[in-house]
Design a protein that fits this description.
The chain is of the alpha+beta class. It has 2 domains: 107 residues, no CATH class; 88 residues, no CATH class. Helix content is 29%, strand content 27%. The strands form 3 sheets. Strands 1, 2, 5, 6 and 10 form a 5-stranded antiparallel sheet that branches. A 5-stranded mixed sheet has the order 3-4-9-8-7. Strand 8 and strand 9 form a beta hairpin. Helix 1 packs across helix 4. The longest helix is centred in the first third of the chain and has 26 residues. The relative contact order is 0.22.
Length: 235
Amino acid sequence: MTTTLEEIYKDVLFRSGKDLRGGYITPENFNLAIKVVNERFMNQLVDNFETSKEVTKDLQPFIKTLGSPQYPALEFTPVFAGDNKKGGYADIPDDMWYEATASYLSLLNNGCSVDSEYRTVEFVSQHEFDAKMRSSITSPVDNPEENDPILVNRNNLYYIYPFIRRISFTYIKTPAQPVYEYTISNGIPVYDPATSVQFEYPETCVDTLTDMIKTYIAVGIESQWNIQTQMPSKL
């Protein structure tokens, strides 16, 4: 995004009439707003992705694939060496916001030749995992030919059943937390571009983000105004 936080801050002030009910929008309030809006907007993009299963231009910068030319595959360690049925575990990526897809390369022995194909790894909740593993029909351990491997989040680790050494793992990474840094000169806050952290979203998102920031701040100031102007209760 080429639009800086300083430009967004000034635009929010302009759209708000520079103050709301006499209340100035401080850098502190602006920082709180951009933190909340940053997360809310990413959740909106994820909701749209879940509905359409399409990666929009706004979401594209946050797509990360382990097992691509840029990043190594997600590697698992066996729970018990030599026993694939016990599964394996791997660290969850630190920058993950949302799981998208996972797959692995399956090798098939066809007599004199070996064929390969990519198979899906299914994300499941703990409840779904328990249900699948209890049934010999749906269990990927007892019936691997008919069922894809399953991946479950447990104790802040990923567990895969049956054990697979490495998989390709695509996810939506966490957006950087924007921060409006400033110094005080003659009692006035002055924007510091060198230490500020900008939004990571594409330029096309600026208007939407600005409106969301303005709305968040306006609701907060309105609530504070209502509290301050409430009539005292009668005794």
